[in-house]
Specification:
The structure is a homotrimer. Chain A is an alpha/beta fold and about 450 residues long. Chain A has helices at about 5-10, 30-40, 65-70, 95, 115-125, 140-145, 160-170, 185-190, 200-230, 245-270, 280-290, 290-310, 315-330, 340-365, 370, 375-400, 420-425, 425-435, 440-450, and strands at about 20-25, 45-50, 65, 75-80, 100-105, 130, 150-155, 175-180. Chain A is elongated, with a radius of gyration of 32 Å. Chains A, B, C: Keywords: Copper, Endosome, FAD, Flavoprotein, Ion transport, Iron, Iron transport, Membrane, Metal-binding, Oxidoreductase, Transmembrane, Transmembrane helix, Transport. Chains A, B, C: It is a multi-pass membrane protein.
Chain lengths: ~450, ~450, ~450
C-alpha cells in the first residue's frame, strides 16, 4: 500500500501501532495547545507555519514545516488561523484537494460575517472537505486538562467520512463529539460560544422588570406613605423588609407563569379541535423557557426563605418584640394565647416550608445529570404533578398569610391593594383554569385531541 | 457499485458525502418528529404510508411512498406504528428480508403482552433483523430539541451488525445509545418508560408507614393527652410541632436503615465463613435501594431543619417567650445564666448542624454527575466513612437533645416512652454492632473472608 | 475466510449475529463479574484456569479450559490475575503472540512497583499487544449493575487497533472508554483508583491549618480573656459562638484565595511583558485547585449560615434577650428605635444573604453536569463576573458587620486585633489590586499581552 496516499489511508484500519499524522496550520495559542494534546493522545503532529522554524513553545515532538510541506504529510489539516488570513490558503488549493480541513475559528460577534467561517473556507478551497469542530473548546482548558466548561465538541460538515475522521480525533482527545449535520450548521456552531445564556434572557428581563415594579410599589406603600402621613422613618426597610416582600411575590408569579402556557395551549387545542396546527410563536418560545422561568422563581423563593429566617436576628425586630414585652410588663397584663392566630401562623409557615421543599425537589430534578437518569414518565410526573402541588402549596401559603387583609380597609393605602394581592392574580387564575380543565367533560375531548383526533379535519389539510 | 443493494451498502464506508437513506413506516407524531431530526442530521428520509400523499406536517425534504416502495429504498426501516397494526407487515416479508427493522413502540401497561413488541415483530417478519430502540425518547423532546429527560436510547437486538447501524444513527441524532444485549432485553426496555421510580417504591412506602405511625403516636401524646388531662387545646401543633418531631425521627431511622444491611451482611459472612454464597433476597434488594433510603432520609432531615429554623417566628413561640419574660418582670426577678443548659443547648444544635452538613455532602456526592467524577475509593470513603460519621453525629444530636427525659418519669405519658426514644433504637443498635465489628479480633477474619478466604471450603463446591 | 484467525477477524465487520469470543484468565471475583457482564452483552466467554473445571460461581454459559486452550479461542484475553502471578504467562508467549492482552490489575499502593503492571506484562509477553483497561471499575459495581461510582474506563496501549477493540468491548458493556494514550499512561491509570481526592489535599490542609489558628485565637480572646479578667465562664462558646466566628473568616479568606492567583498572574504578565513564559510552579498548581478552594469556602459559608440562623433558638441568646427585656421593664424605661443601628443590622444581613446566594449559584455551576451545559463564555461570566461580585458582597458584609469595632479600643484585647479584622486582609488586597487592574491604562497593555503581543520579544526566543 502506498504510504503517500494519506487521504484514503486514514480510513484503513490496518496501519499498525500508529495513529494518522495530523497537520496544524498556525502556531498560535490554540494550535499549540491542540498539538500538545494530540501528541499526548498518540497522534504524530506536524505544524505548518510561515517561518518554518521551531519555537520553544511548540511541543518538542512536533515537526514544523512550510504550509505546503506540512499539508502533504497528513489527511487532516487543522486550520488554527484567524478568518482574516484564510486567503493565503487559496494558492495551496491543489495540495489541499481531497484533504479534510478542520475549521476551528471563532468570531468576536454573533453573525459577524454573512456566511460562516467554515463555509467561507469551503468556498476558498473548493476541493477540500471542510469540517467545523473544536471551536467550543478553549486553549487554556485543553492545556490545563481541567475541562470544567464543556467537553462537548460540535462537529458539522458535508462529507460524512471526513466528519467521522474528525469525530474520531475528538474522541481520542477525551472530548465528546456531537454531530450537528451539514456545513449549514456552522453558523450556529460559531455563534454558540458567543452566546450568553440565550434561554435565560426572557426570564431574567421579565423578572427584573417585575422586581423594579414591585420594589417601587412596596417602597411607596411601606416607606413613603408612613413618612408622609405618620412621619415615621422606615427607610431601612429597603434592606430586608421590602426585598422580602418582592421576592416571594416574584417567586409566586414566575412559578405560575411556568404553568400558564400549558393551560393556554390546552385552551387553544380545545378551541381549534386539533393538535395539528402550530401554536403561536410567542407561546412556543414561552414553553421552551419554562425551565428557566422555574429556576428563576426558585432563586427568588430561596432568597425569600433566607430573608424570612433572619427575621429574628434583625435588630429592628428584636427592638419591636422587646418594646412590646416591656409595655406588657409595665401595663401589668399578660395576654392569653390566641389559638386562631397560632393556627394561622403555623399553617402558613408549614405550607411555605412544604412548598419550598417541593420546589427545591423540582430544581434538583432539572439538573441535567438527574434528568438524564429518569425516564419520560418520571420526568413528567415530577414536573407536572409535583409542579402543580408546589404551585397549590405556595398559593395557599400566600392566601393564609395575608387573607385577613383582604377585608381590612386600613390595608388599602392610597386606595391601592397590598402588593401581595397583585401576586395572587396569576397563580389563582392558572389554578382555577387547570381545575376546570381536569373536569371529565373537558378532559376527555382534550385527551382525544392530544391522541390525534380532530374535530374538524379540514384544518390539517 | 450498485446503488440498489442498499442493505450491504450501509456498512461500506466509502459512499461519499451522503448518509444512508432511512425509511420510516408511519406518519404519526413520532414518525414525523424522528423524520425531522434525521433530515437535520443529514439522513435522506423516505416515509412509507398507506396513502402515499404528502401531508403539510411531514418534513418538506422527505419523500412519501407506499410501504413497499419506501422499504426498497433503505436498509434501515423504522416502524413508527402501533403494535396492533403490525400484521400489515406480514405480506411485506419478502421485501423486508434482510432489512433492519427498528421497533420503537411502547405499551400502555407494564408487561401488557406476553412477548415484547419487538419479539412479536421478529416473529411476524422472520427474515428481518429486528432492533429495539428509541422507545425512551418522546416526540415532543425530539422536536423541541430540549432533551431534558433522557438522552439515553436503549438498544437491543440479536444481530450485532444491525444493532451497530442503529446505534450509529442514534449517535448521529445527538443521543447516547446504550447496548442492552439481545432481543430478550426488549421486554425490559419496553417496560422502562412505563416505570415510575421503581427503586424508590420501598423507601417511600416504608417512610409513609413510619410517618403515619409516629404522627399518630405524637398526636396522642402531645395533643390528645393534654386535651384530656389538662384541658388544653394544642391542636395547632399539627402544623409544625408534630411534623417537626416526626421528621427528625424518620430521618434518623432511615439513615440507620441505610447502614443496617451492611452490618447484617458482615454478620452473615462471619457466620457462614465465606463470601461465596448469595445473601438472602431481601438483603440484596435492601442493599440496592440504600441510596434511595438515604436520600429520603435527607429529605426528612432538610424539612426538619426548616421547621426548626422557623421556630422563633412562630406566633406561639413568641407568645410563650413574651409571657415568660413578662412573668419574670412582674415577679421582679432575673434568672442567672444556666451554664449547663447553655452547654447542652449549644451542643445539640452544633451536633445537628454538623451532622446535617455532612448529610448534605453525602447527598451531593450521590448526584450522578458528581459520582461519575470520583473513583471507587473516593466514593467508598465518602459513602462509608463520612456516612458513619453523619450517623454518629445525628445520633449524638438526638441523645444530647433529649437525654434528660430518659430518667424523667413525667415524660412517660400513658406509660409510653417519648417518640424520640423509639427513634434511637435502630441507630444505636447499628452503631454498637459496627463498633464491635471493627475490633481487630473480628475485623481480621472478616477482611480475610472478603478477600476470598473460606473457613469451610465445601460451601463453594 | 478462515474462522481460526481470530486475531484479525475481530476487525472485519461481516461476522453475522455474533460478537467475538473473549477469553478471561482467572476465575476470581473480578474475572467472574466481568464474565457475567460480557455474556449479558452478547459476548461468548471462555475462562482460562489452572484447574479446568467449572465452578458453580462461574456463569453457566461460559466454557472453562486450560489457559493455553482458552487463549487460542479468542483474540482478546483479559488477565484477571494479580501481578505476582504474571510469570506463568511467559511460557504461553507463543500462543499469546499477536493477541490483545488486557491488563485490569490494580496495586495496593501508589507507585508500588517501578514499572506499571501493564508495562511489566508487555515485557513478559513481548509479542502480545497489551492494553490497560477496566481497573477503575469494581467487581461489585459490575455485578449489581449500580455503577454509582464511575462509568469511566481509562484505556491505554501502544497498539491503536488493539485499543479500539477493547474500547468497543467497554462500550458494549455500557461503560464509557476514555483513551489515555500509549502504555506509558498505565502507571497513572493504575494510580488513579488509589488516589483519595488529590486535588482536594491542598485546600483541605490549608483550611484545617487556618481553622486551628483562628479557633485558638478566638478561644483566647473570647473565652480565656473574660475568664481571667472578668471571671466569666463562657466555655460553652466552643460549641457555636466560636465556630460561627471561624467559619465566616475561613469562607472569606478561602474565597479571596480563589481570586488571588488570577491577580498575581496578571501582575506577573504585566511585569514580564509577555504571556509566553510559564508561571512559577506553585502558581500553576494554585490555579488548578481554585475550584476546590472555592467549594471548601462555600462549605464554610454554608455552616456559617446555619450557625447564624440557629442563634435565636440558642438557650444563651434567649436568656440574654429575656434578661435585657426584664431589666428594661424593671427600670421602667423603653428605648426608642435606633434607626442607624437598624440600618447597619439590616444591611449586613442583606449583603450576607445576597453574597451567600451568589456563592451557592457559583457552587451549582461547578457541578460537572451543569458546567458541561454552558459554553466557555458563560462559564467565565459566572466564575469571573459573578465570582467577583460574590467576593465584593461578602467583603462588604464583613465590613458593615464589624466596621464599628475598628476604632473601638475596647475591642483590642491583649493588644490583638479582633479575629475578623485579620480575615479582611486578603479579600481587601485582592479587591484593591483587581480594581487597579481594570483601570484602562493598565487593562489595555494586559489585554494586548494576553492576545499575544510581547513588550520584549527576545524572551520568547
Amino acid at each position: 500500500m502506498n504510504k503517500n496516499s494519506s487521504n484514503t489511508m486514514a480510513l484503513t484500519p490496518n496501519t499498525p501501532n500508529k495513529r494518522e499524522t495530523v497537520c496544524i496550520f498556525g502556531t498560535g495559542d490554540f494550535g499549540r495547545a491542540l498539538g500538545h494534546k494530540m501528541i499526548q493522545s498518540g497522534y504524530p503532529v506536524v505544524f505548518g507555519s510561515r517561518s518554518a522554524q521551531t519555537s520553544s513553545l511548540l511541543p518538542k515532538d512536533a515537526e514544523v514545516l512550510s504550509h505546503a510541506e506540512a499539508a502533504q504529510k497528513a489527511a487532516v489539516i487543522i486550520i488554527a488561523i484567524q478568518r482574516q488570513h484564510y486567503n493565503f490558503l487559496a494558492p495551496l488549493a491543489e495540495i489541499l484537494h481531497g484533504k479534510v480541513l478542520v475549521d476551528i475559528s471563532n468570531n468576536l460577534k454573533i453573525n459577524q460575517y454573512p456566511e460562516s467561517n467554515a463555509e467561507y473556507l469551503a468556498q476558498l478551497v473548493p476541493g477540500a472537505k471542510v469540517v467545523k469542530a473544536f471551536n467550543t473548546v478553549s486553549a487554556w482548558a485543553l492545556q490545563s486538562g481541567t475541562l470544567d466548561a464543556s467537553r462537548q465538541v460540535f462537529v458539522c460538515g458535508d462529507d460524512v467520512e471526513a466528519k467521522q475522521m474528525v469525530m474520531d480525533i475528538v474522541r481520542a482527545l477525551g472530548l465528546t463529539p456531537l454531530d450537528q449535520g451539514s456545513l449549514l450548521a456552522a453558523q450556529e456552531i460559531e455563534n454558540y460560544p458567543l452566546q450568553l445564556f440565550p434561554m435565560w434572557k426572557f426570564p431574567i428581563y421579565l423578572s427584573l422588570g417585575l422586581t423594579a415594579f414591585f420594589f417601587f410599589y412596596c417602597l411607596a406603600l411601606d416607606v413613603i406613605y408612613p413618612y408622609i402621613y405618620e412621619n415615621k422613618d422606615f427607610s431601612f426597610f429597603i434592606a430586608i423588609s421590602i426585598p422580602n416582600k418582592v421576592c416571594p411575590i416574584l417567586a409566586l408569579i414566575l412559578l405560575a407563569l411556568v404553568y400558564l402556557p400549558g393551560v393556554l395551549a390546552a385552551i387553544i387545542q380545545l378551541y381549534r379541535g386539533t393538535k395539528y396546527r402550530r401554536f403561536p410563536d410567542w407561546l412556543d418560545k414561552w414553553m421552551l423557557c419554562r425551565k428557566q422561568l422555574g429556576l428563576v422563581a426558585l432563586a427568588f423563593a430561596s432568597v425569600h426563605v433566607l430573608y424570612t429566617l433572619v427575621i429574628p436576628i434583625r435588630s429592628y425586630v428584636r427592638w419591636r418584640i422587646s418594646s412590646y414585652t416591656v409595655s406588657q410588663a409595665l401595663n401589668n397584663k399578660t395576654s392569653p394565647l390566641d389559638i386562631t392566630n397560632a393556627w394561622l401562623s403555623d399553617s402558613y409557615v408549614a405550607l411555605g416550608i412544604l412548598g419550598f421543599f417541593l420546589f427545591v425537589l423540582l430544581g434538583i430534578t432539572s439538573l441535567p445529570s438527574v434528568s438524564n437518569n429518569v425516564n419520560w414518565r418520571e420526568f413528567r410526573f415530577v414536573q407536572s404533578k409535583l409542579g402543580y402541588l408546589t404551585l397549590i402549596l405556595c398559593t395557599a401559603h400566600t392566601l393564609v398569610y395575608g387573607g385577613k387583609w383582604f377585608l381590612n380597609p386600613s390595608s388599602y393605602k392610597w386606595y391601592l391593594p397590598h402588593a401581595y394581592m397583585l401576586s395572587l392574580i396569576v397563580p389563582c387564575a392558572v389554578l382555577v383554569v387547570k381545575f376546570v380543565l381536569i373536569f371529565p367533560c373537558i378532559d376527555k375531548p382534550l385527551t382525544q385531541i392530544r391522541q390525534g383526533w380532530e374535530r374538524n379535519p379540514r384544518y390539517s389539510a
